[in-house]
Amino acid sequence: MRISDPPRITDPAISKIAMAIAVTSVIAMVIGTFLSASPAYASDNQGDWSDQLAAAVEEIDREMPGNLGVYIAHLGDDAEVRHRSDRDWYLASTIKIPLGIVLLRQAEKGELSLAEELELADSDFVDGSGGLLWEDPGRRLTLAELNQRSIRDSDSTATDMLIRRLGPETLDRELREILGTDRLGPITTILQVRYDAWGEVHPKVESLSNRDFIVLSTEDTLEDRYRYLLDRIEIDSDQAGVASGAEAFDKYYARGLNSGSLEVFGRLLERLVKGELLDQNHTDMLLGYMDSVNTGDRRIKAGLPKNARWAHKTGTQIARSCNVGILNPEQPDAAVVVAACAENYENLGQAEQAFEKLGRALTEAGLVL
Known about the structure:
alpha+beta, 5-stranded antiparallel sheet, two-stranded antiparallel sheet
């Protein structure tokens, strides 16, 4: 026998013991590999993922024209990444999530029934996403269907019908009670956004109808809309309160309407996925709507693996866009809350590229199951 050869085991009992030891070693190695690779065990490695992700977010922000705000929290280990997340950001259509939460809470308290029907009126139509804009007045829709359309399709007409049903005061009061802060809102109808933003041009904007704003939205560029508006309300540019459409929206954003802290929004999502805001049925309902959202394919979702579970909502306005959501919502201990907004970019594609990079950074940090 050469000195380098292992000794031969001839005793059957000893052979069985050796085989058991070998099998146990292999099992331990496989389990160890799984635990080290699984995002569900990120608590053992939270400093690594959060530091890595924070550095990636800073780099994304540096490379992107404009500003990026990000809040990320892992519910399993309480680690967070914050980047300009405590200041207020214009939230655009992501406000449709807190609207949906308040609606479902009202249903649970017996204040309304999700089977209640609202009739679509001509005054309900508002420009933006969703198919209701092309329906005929008189159609009746349940509150449940309107909520689904508001979140899944980002249907602005559905959103405004729900806000008017609840009442803006009720909506804001309920959110303050839920959050314990006024750092989210006040929330207005989408149509009111049009009146408030374009109202910076001249008080005569108040005389316009919802249909006027729909026609206005068909103009190719923001400055085309500005010139169309001057003609529509019959004023000269020297009578306008602002010199451009961009200036009108900048002044509107400064008012803080439909805005909020990304950290506050993130905590709202955290409580949602933990089941602290709604019963199990309504929690699953709302997360299901978010899971089936049909916007945002070029945002965070584009940087995630194809099989990733990403329950989310997008929002877009002039020089403003957001993407908020929950990774791995089916496993609260492994869920990751993400709230991200961008502003002052040159075109929406630049913001979408930043969001896609954020999706890749979340993947590379090992946070996607």
